[in-house]
User: Fold these one by one.
Assistant:
Number 1:
Amino acid sequence: MKIYSRLKIIVFSLISLGLVFYPSFSAHRQLAKAENNYPPLDKLSLPILMYHHVKPLTGREDQMQIGLTTTDQSFANQLKVLRDNGYQTFFAGEIPDLLAGKMLASQQSVALTFDDGYDDFYNFAFPLLKEYQFKATVYIIYNAINAPGYLTENQIKEMVASGLVEIGSHTLDHVDLKKASSAEARRQIVLSKNQLEARFKIKVKTFAYPFGYFKPETISLVKTTGYTSAVSVIPGDIQTKDNLFSLPRLRPKNLMGEKFKVELLQKYHFQK
Ligand SMILES: [Zn+2]
């Protein structure tokens, strides 16, 4: 009996201690969660895959169109490879937060990006993204919204509401920012952001250079406009604070299975 009553005292004391310390412990945890403080990273191995068209080939396409097309079949296979290998998808606009330690990167992180805002993204890629619950960033040419072959305003609204699609800017008219005058470059970079934000009630954080063309002045303009990242067409998968405005990307094309895994997801990791 004596042992039991001692045990009772011990158990009661432990519970009391828990009652005293648990609130402060959980408050501390909530604070940590609110600040989202993870160790900042010098560099992050995160392949940003660059797509244009995702659709079946009809046989009527020219070489250029074929080069810009990933068939819906290849795309489905690539998503399966990503899932089977435990990849977690991030928006391109989240890369600065991952590097700063505001978000936690996964061991296998990847970003799916789609340039130009073609309507085949809605028809063929978006249903697969929903199936896999994978995130993607679409770089929209603002003045092409509702044009034949491009995404409509309603499609964009629906995709934004799904939480799976981030909208980035790809200028107003897909101009060559290396050749454009400073005033024109500014208009393309600033107005596309402002108008996308107003029309879709979103924050546009990321930018893609049309044709991958930019010069140092373009980068300063993108930075001062308030974007926090920009993607290039430089091949690679190592993301750092120094290349936030020229993030390298990789072209998945129609690679499938092991080939996709080795050539896209693993090839550049050796540069770490
Ligand atoms: Zn483009």
Number 2:
Amino acid sequence: MQHVGTIRIRPTNAKDAEKVATFMRRNWGSERVVSRGRMYYPETLPGFVAFIDDSTVGLLTYEIRNSECEVVTLNSSSEGMGIGSGLLEDVRKVAISAECKRLWLITTNDNTRALRFYQKKGFRLAALYPNQLEKSRLLKPEIPLAGMDGIPLRDEIELEVSL
Ligand SMILES: CC(C)(COP(=O)(O)OP(=O)(O)OC[C@H]1O[C@@H](n2cnc3c(N)ncnc32)[C@H](O)[C@@H]1OP(=O)(O)O)[C@@H](O)C(=O)NCCC(=O)NCCS
């Protein structure tokens, strides 16, 4: 029987920058993220990292501005074990402590797993930005034309939960 250790989550710190950049390259093929026309470098953002034993199994990065908290990236490398939920719970606590009015994020039209996950966690669909990926590709040409499950990658979808 395979032993799976407990999931541990801690805030990222300045020493994690290279780990975050490597995690981004592995999971998204790039160190940078475009959301609503803004470029982000997740290794410069606050975040949380999840471990099982000594392995990094999840990462969330966020930005707080204008009394709102945006989840900029969320990744779990062992799905269905509660890693995504744990990371989301920790950022929700930070956002509440910072007196944010809402927690929000952008996902893309191809990401049906994320749409399922976030809605089950209480997020509501807040906005649709049709063809936004065309604009994002001007800033970040490495964004592929086809996304998850071979679905054309075209639109941004904003999800939110009030705090
Ligand atoms: C979306 C994503 C972050 C979810 O992460 P995850 O670690 O699989 O999330 P969780 O394990 O917390 O929850 C997923 C499911 O597992 C279930 N689960 C939670 N704990 C569990 C456990 N201990 N054992 C088994 N299942 C569990 C949850 O109930 C949930 O199932 P449900 O949706 O039927 O309720 C992950 O799929 C991912 O990294 N996707 C690729 C990157 C991505 O798309 N990120 C979002 C971009 S906006």
